[in-house]
């Protein structure tokens, strides 16, 4: 009876062990199948989520920001007082040097001008008469017909008449200049950016009437930290972006470096001149960029292709049709174009994932959707 019981127990234990062995094998097979299924599951991404590695130029240096202003600007002011009779331009009107912008009432000034002109005529007549008297006296003294005193008097009268003529001409020149000032002209070629008067307004001497800007060249004035000023030199390029053109990089060159740092901010002001062909840039736009104090050609990829959350920077690239993590070493970074140089870990021709696709799990099969393909619609 006891022997039979022990045999039964041994048989039951063997059955349990056998079942466990089969169960463990099935579990391992299931895990392997799941892993294989995960590896075989493909992810389709858009062409915008991949970047083919290539060599290109990258630039970096001290950051710089500020407002754009026309390189040449002129405020046209009234030099004489008077009512505005007429204006000939408005904001946005293109003008040249000497273009008439407005006219002021010249009634009083013209009266003074005419009076001065009459004074010149009278003085000229008197001077001519004095000159003839002197010439006649010189002939008479040669013939012994008059005394030396008479010749001296004629000479004195001639000098006085010539002096009075010179004074009359000077007064006339002033009156003529004042009259010309009633015609308001542009001192530079450019575009009217501000018109401050209308016909009928009373302009006082010194009042600003118009502002003319030359949009063909702009300037950017910004600041660089004093501890970085050693890397900034005249003629260096400045690359920047502006509001309104977020995806376009503009370039200027440093034309001036302030020799004194701001005592409060310890920043050094620098000025860059920017050619503005086509008048794309306008004054007042805020610009952000950097001085290209260091530049070279190398492997450059978008910054959003690099994962810098880990201790070692990594990228996700496509190799043999699957996602693969690769450790990389970083070089120069250009915040303006949002690109970074890779000095180690990638080769020209590699395809890296950018944006959200950059986080794909390694060994995931990756397919890049053709440009004309549309994502499948869910039913």
Please summarize what this structure is.
The chain is α+β, with helices and mostly antiparallel strands. It has helices at residues 2-40, 107-143, 148-180; strands at 42-45, 50-52, 54-60, 63-77, 82-87, 94-95, 100-104, 183-185, 190-195, 202-203, 208-225, 237-242, 245-257, 267-275, 286-291, 294-302, 306-307, 314-319, 322-327, 329-334, 339-344, 351-353, 365-368.
Q: What would you say this structure looks like, in words?
A:
The protein has 379 residues and is α+β, with helices and mostly antiparallel strands. Among the domains are: 40-56 and 297-368, conserved putative lor/sdh protein from methanococcus maripaludis s2 fold (Beta Barrel); 63-70 and 215-295, Elongation Factor Tu (Ef-tu), domain 3; 106-181, Helix Hairpins (Orthogonal Bundle). It contains three helices and 23 strands. It has helices spanning 2-40, 107-143, 148-180, and strands at residues 42-45, 50-52, 54-60, 63-77, 82-87, 94-95, 100-104, 183-185, 190-195, 202-203, 208-225, 237-242, 245-257, 267-275, 286-291, 294-302, 306-307, 314-319, 322-327, 329-334, 339-344, 351-353, 365-368. Strands 4-11-14-13-12-15 form a six-stranded antiparallel beta barrel. Strands 2, 17, 18, 19 and 22 form a five-stranded antiparallel β-sheet that branches. A four-stranded antiparallel β-sheet has the order 3-16-21-20, with no helix packed on it. Helix 2 packs antiparallel against helix 3 (148-180). The protein is elongated. Mean pLDDT is 85; it is low at 1-38.
